[in-house]
Amino acid sequence: MLDIKNTVVYLQLTKLLTKHDNMTKPAKNKEQTILEAAEQEFLNKGFAGARTTSIAEAAGVTHAMLHYYFRTKEQLFERILDEKMRLMSQSVLTAFGEPGLPLAERLRNGIERHFDFIVANPDLPRFIVNEVFSRPDHYEAMRTRIREIAEVLMRDIQQELDAAAARGETERIDVRMLMLDIISLNVFPFIAYPVIEPILGNFSTDRSRFFALRKAENVETIMRRLKKS
Amino acid sequence: MLDIKNTVVYLQLTKLLTKHDNMTKPAKNKEQTILEAAEQEFLNKGFAGARTTSIAEAAGVTHAMLHYYFRTKEQLFERILDEKMRLMSQSVLTAFGEPGLPLAERLRNGIERHFDFIVANPDLPRFIVNEVFSRPDHYEAMRTRIREIAEVLMRDIQQELDAAAARGETERIDVRMLMLDIISLNVFPFIAYPVIEPILGNFSTDRSRFFALRKAENVETIMRRLKKS
DNA sequence: TTAATATCCAACAAAATTGTTAGATTATTT
DNA sequence: AAATAATCTAACAATTTTGTTGGATATTAA
Q1: Is residue B9 scored above 50 in pLDDT?
Q2: Above 80 in pLDDT, residue A134?
Q3: How confident is the model at residue B28 (pLDDT cuts 50, 70, 90)?
């Protein structure tokens, strides 16, 4: 007699293996479609607000399919959260982790690239902030991950900050404060967009113009923060 | 024959009226207790994540009571959201709406008072941002409300900014950009605390010391942003 | 002291949501 | 062609969550 659950696991396993054999085709398959729909739903509504039926519907499959591939809402969600955490960390690293440039250039560049990343992924920050906050069980793992990534980058930048300050080029500052300044300025307007939009006046009609101005404002603010006075 | 729903409405009506007659007693009654428990639950988990049973349990009443007083989760939630929106708007107004001071003092003061308010209400911002975002139906009303409040204050501050710039005391700047700088710096660390905590290093052990330093950093950053260079 | 009000209790009803199953069909691989 | 895998259908089961009801009991106001 067959245990259905084991059968499903077996099917998925073989599927994965054969897929691994010929990764050549793009394979816009249903599993992928479901993942994309889930991404939308989870980013917009969070774990608690998301509905597996809506996800299945948006993906154009029956909701049996969703459980066939991912077994539970929780597992599906974790696929998404994991990927998004990776993406978010990555964006900070690649934006600021470019040594070789003079410090001011490196920072200006970092701010702009980080800002551009968020323009391209405007509801990523809210998603991460909310879900990290509301998952005490997964928190310790995330914490460790964030710390490890941040530590290397921060140590590096702190050294450069100290060197520049020693040469009298910039004000002395703690890298954690500086990075928090940058991230706050870059991220907050996106997290809180619906709340700030009403106060933007004529800015709000042209969203992309506003963001361009905002990017410049953030660079300006940080450069002034560093300037020797 | 009595329609139960109308009876309940009637009871609530008379309760409200008699209460209005003698507002002298503190009345730590169950209705209030439920509201307080609901506040906790909604602030922590949002509308979708909140459970009316948890609220009732936390308030130490049966969940029939909750429906007796508030009929639906939605109505209970709106009481809370409404109050919190008011509180949040109010905090900005009272922090920055103090004319008569020289501009720099007024802003420094505003930043500090606004920051203190958030220290005292650390999960208010995340709550508002999330729930405003996920309620398209109520959004138009909130939008109007935010705009009306902001407009007066902003016009006032913009005039002072222009005057100071004309006197050559400060850099010329758009009030919307400046206020967004301030709010971003003040609010973001609280919204994202679980995410940034791992990168704080030894700061993170003493949360209140960190916040004190952070407040000073925000004032410094904004003052430098305004400084004529 | 009545009448009105606040609260409890305990069970139930209704709805929404997640998860399961048994087969059928279609496509792909061997 | 046979086996394997992907997907559909359509119903159903389990659980969670919200909301209801009819009384009982205690407290407070007229």
Answers
A1: no
A2: yes
A3: low
Write out chain A residues lying below 8 Å of B125, CB-based. Answer: 192
Spatial separation of the C-alpha atoms in residues B173 and B175, rounded to whole Å = 6
> What would the pLDDT profile of B95-147 be if each residue is shown by its tens digit?
999 878 999 999 999 999 999 999 999 999 999 999 988 888 889 989 999 99
Q: Which of residues 178-207 of A touch B (CB under 8 A)?
A: 179-181, 183-185, 187-189, 191-192, 194-201, 203
**Token pair in block for residue A149:** 């990534």
Query: CB burial class (10 A; 0-12, 13-18, 19+) of residue B168?
Result: exposed
The answer to whether residue A87 neighbours chain B at the CB level (below 8 Å) is no
Alpha carbons A32 and A39: distance in angstroms, whole number: 11
Nearest CA-CA partner of A46 in A86, A67, A73: A73
Structure tokens that stand for B57 in this block: 């349990």
| B23: pLDDT strictly greater than 50 | no
- Is the model's pLDDT at A44 over the cut of 70? yes
pLDDT at position B12: 39
The predicted model scores a pTM of 0.88
Tell me what pLDDT residue A28 has. Answer: 60
Helix (H) / strand (E) element for A42: namely helix A30-49
Question: Distance (Å) from CA A23 to C1' D13?
Answer: 39
Between residues B25 and B50, the one the model is more confident about: B50
3-state secondary structure A95-163: HHCCCCCCHHHHHHHHHHHHHHHHHHCCCHHHHHHHHHHCCHHHHHHHHHHHHHHHHHHHHHHHHHHHH
Q: Contact, A160 vs A93, CB < 8 A?
A: no
Facing residue for A177 by CB, picked from B130, B133, B217:
B217
CA angle B73, A43, B115 (to 5 degrees): 75
Task: Note whether B181 and B225 are within 8 A (CB).
Answer: yes
Instruction: Assess A156–B contact: CB distance below 8 Å, yes or no.
Output: no
- Chain B residues near residue A51 by CB distance under 8 angstroms: none
Place of tokens 């002034």: A224
Residue A1 has pLDDT above 50, yes or no: no
Task: Count CB-CB contacts under 10 A for residue B101.
Answer: 13
